[in-house]
Amino acid sequence: MILNLYQLFKASLMEPKRQAAVRIMTIGKIMQFIFIFIAFLTVIAFIELISGLDVATSNLDGLVEFVEEIEWLLYPFAVISLFVSTTIYHFVKISLFALIALVILNARKRRGEYRHLWRTTALSVTVPTLLAFALSFLDLGFSVSLLTSLLTVLYLYLAIGYYPKKPPIQKAQSKA
Questions:
Q1: Contact, 57 vs 64, CB < 8 A?
Q2: What is the crossing angle of helices 142-160 and 61-107, to 10°?
Q3: Which of the listed residues 60, 117, 137, 165 has the most CB atoms within 10 Å of its CB?
Q4: pLDDT tens figures, 75-113
Q5: Nearest partner of 102 among 94, 113, 88, judged by Cα
Q6: Are 117 and 105 contacting, i.e. CB atoms less than 8 angstroms apart?
Q7: Contact 117, 102 (CB under 8 A)
Q8: Cα(156)–Cα(98) distance, rounded to whole angstroms?
Q9: pTM of whole model > 0.70?
Q10: Neighbour count for residue 12 (Cβ, 10 Å)
Q11: Where are the transmembrane segments (predicted)?
């Protein structure tokens, strides 16, 4: 099953069956999807940073001069640090939710490995991440994190339902 990036994005939005199916894809395609998604988030966060910086500097005359003098250094550094921090955060988030998915997988008696769940989780966190980003403008605090975490777990639960079932444990028959 070869999916392009658009198909992966579409699957991450509303298709738990496809989210489960990506477990057999190569890790390279999933990584490509993750890095493009992170680049998208970084660009949006950078635009938000620039607009917020313009508002903040308009109130302070000395800060306006300082920012204008170091602008050539400030913006590239901000983009790089935003990309690196977003990447680290996203990979840690995927890894932790994959551990939670491993617990769900074993509780539902489904077959799979951590590496399969990591790939599925990479898609399952897309909608909650976009939702958290959109709701961050409303300044709702911790409730947004809790809501998006529960939504991620729900996506994982639904996707794990499409993993193959474990075969029943057969008792060793003794010859008498």
A1: yes
A2: 30
A3: 117
A4: 788 889 989 999 999 999 999 999 999 999 999 999 989
A5: 113
A6: yes
A7: yes
A8: 9
A9: yes
A10: 22
A11: 33-53, 73-105, 117-138, 144-163
Q: What is the residue-wise DSSP string for 121-175?
A: HHHHTHHHHHHHHHHGGGT-THHHHHHHHHHHHHHHHHHHTTSPBPPPPPPPPPP
Tell which residue, 81, 77, 75, 91, has the closest CA to residue 35.
91
Separation CA 21–CA 23 (nearest Å): 5
Q: Which two tokens stand for residue 160?
A: 């794990």
Cα 53 from Cα 74, distance rounded (Å): 11
pLDDT < 50 regions, the chain = 1
CB contact set of 95 (below 8 Å; sequence gap of 6+): 118
Q: How far is CA 6 from CA 2, 3, 20, 126, in A?
A: 12, 8, 17, 13
Neighbouring residues of 9: CB distance < 8 A, sequence distance ≥ 6? 33, 37, 126
Element (H, E) at 89: helix 61-107
The encoded tokens of residue 121 equal 């989780």
Residue 139 tokens, joined: 């300044």
* Bridge partners, residue 110, by sequence: 165
Residue 19 buriedness (CB in 10 A; 0-12 / 13-18 / 19+): buried
